[in-house]
């Protein structure tokens, strides 16, 4: 995703292995040697707004902490999630992008000449964004806040998914369903929840990564794998475009 490098990086990397208090937890108690164990599982956490699905350099909680300064909780990774049938790529702009399945496309995506397969997936890290921090990310992603509203029937994608056209922006904001693979520090997935994804609808062809983007993506891969992001998928899908 199009996140320009900050002039400086934090001197201390944040603790990305600590569990979020919002994640599901499992507690086992034993009353006595003769009493059967009782396992209490917390319900799936609920959120009032879609979680942010990071799939590029924002997979790095360290980078997130340098941008989300209004509320520190915005940079705490909550879960690993998956977008089924989506495709991850470095687009011709030199940054990460995602291509939705063929039946969920708009704009330049309709002309994308990239092979897709039914077993395509995009994995990401979920964050609960403060509204002010989300606005900050909109700026980093180059969202056109003045773009016209999407009109029902004029595109194959509902305005419920993409509220506005991409306009002059670098990325547009989509809200789609993602499958939770693992709540960090808690139970496994099996939950399907709405997530916010930044999507570049226009630049959907393969391209080389920007030089400044390569070290940030390597940090993102390293930090996200440390908290449960699927390393084999990163090596298979991301590594061909992101040299060490």
Question: What's the short version?
Answer:
The protein is an alpha+beta fold. Helix content is 16%, strand content 22%. The strands form 3 sheets. A 5-stranded mixed beta barrel has the order 3-7-4-8-9. A two-stranded antiparallel sheet has the order 1-2.
Supply the key terms.
244 residues, alpha+beta, Hypothetical upf0131 protein ytfp, five-stranded mixed beta barrel, 4 helices, globular
If you had to describe this structure to a student in words, what would you say it looks like?
With 244 residues, this protein is of the alpha+beta class. It has one domain (47-238): Hypothetical upf0131 protein ytfp, CATH 3.10.490.10. The chain has helices at residues 61-67, 131-141, 213-226, 231-238, and strands at 26-29, 38-41, 51-54, 79-84, 87-90, 96-99, 121-127, 172-183, 192-199. The chain has a five-stranded mixed β-barrel. The protein has a two-stranded antiparallel sheet with strand order 1-2. It has a two-stranded antiparallel ribbon with strand order 5-6. The radius of gyration is 19 Å and the shape is globular.
